[in-house]
Amino acid sequence: MFKVNDNYLKLPGSYLFSTIGKKVKAYQEAHPDKEIIRLGIGDVTQPLAPAIIEALHKAVDEMGKAETFHGYAPDLGYEFLRNAIAKNDYADRGCRIEADEIFVSDGAKCDSGNIQEIFSIDNKIAVCDPVYPVYVDTNVMAGRTGVYDPASETWSDVIYMPCTAENDFVPELPRETPDLIYLCFPNNPTGSAITKDQLQVWVDYANRVGAVIIYDAAYEAYISEENVPHSIYECEGARTCAIELKSFSKNAGFTGTRLGYTVVPKDLKSGDVMLHSLWARRHGTKYNGAPYIVQRAGEAVYSPEGKEQLKKQVAYYMNNARVIKEGLQEAGYTVAGGVNAPYIWLKTPEKMTSWEFFDYLLEKANVVGTPGSGFGPSGEGYFRLTAFGSYENTVAALERIKKL
């Protein structure tokens, strides 16, 4: 008789955003007359930029002609896109990343979950706390996290690095030595950012102890401060210790189009084994790339027109972030984030848990956010709001919250 992967059974409850969806659905069914404003899930709301739409249409037309039709994409992704990424995201920022070190995929979320497959089950992971749930959940599925403690909501074999108000939501180096270190900056959910000097400390540490940093830079387009790096490869020595994940979802609105990439430098090795070759083998065997049409759309992101149009789109969302942050401060809340990231991290009212505040906002203001405890134990007592809604809904939501 077949057997299931028992590690999946270790996952507590359901996925955070599934729980939110069920709660909102139940409330809507009980209160069909209520208009709910969603500032919870980080899904973009603005349409694709004109330059991207034009590229999509052109690529669709090509697919309709025998002489320009494209079938399976190359394993690493089309060279035209990888060259554009290498130039604009790396060379223009002084980073040495070659096109054949870039692996195009259908999104950073998939890559952040799949990348752990090339590492031994014996590796110990370190994660920021709070953190995007996918990092820990996929390591649970692999059997790398040990035993779950419901009381503390932690795993025995995971090193948690608290990100609190006391350390400005930037983790300190762990006391226990990890093998894999997950870092996400600008951060989801806290909205915090890390300076180049601070990130250099992590790169030096990883090289010293022989660890690999898995660096999620999905929100780099929202960076506004000059001392905040857009890539970990801006730091000296990062090529020998870091893998970087990037997404087109938030910077270009591809949440419904799906495109991302992972960078694995050829200098990153375990003994004589290049991680680049392992990921290339995994990528080629279990290919999760994006189709030609979408990769042409990704290329348009780097066109002069695309860059200009997307600057305006990012500015739109960051204006929403400003509205949320200032509005919450006026209402007396303690807030962080919203400067280099489209997320606002607010402290819940005294004696109110994250989920209690979720229910409070849903019932009293008909506004949906994300409970901080869903991102880890240090997220208890906090709440995340996203700036990805429309401006009109953002303003309306803040007006409702101010009246509470």
TrEMBL record:
Keywords in alphabetical order: Aminotransferase, Pyridoxal phosphate, Transferase
Keyword Mitochondrion: no
The EC number(s) this enzyme carries: 2.6.1.83
GO molecular function: L,L-diaminopimelate aminotransferase activity; pyridoxal phosphate binding
Subunit structure, as described in the record: Homodimer.
Membership in a protein family: Belongs to the class-I pyridoxal-phosphate-dependent aminotransferase family. LL-diaminopimelate aminotransferase subfamily.
Protein name (record): LL-diaminopimelate aminotransferase
Organism: Candidatus Choladousia intestinavium
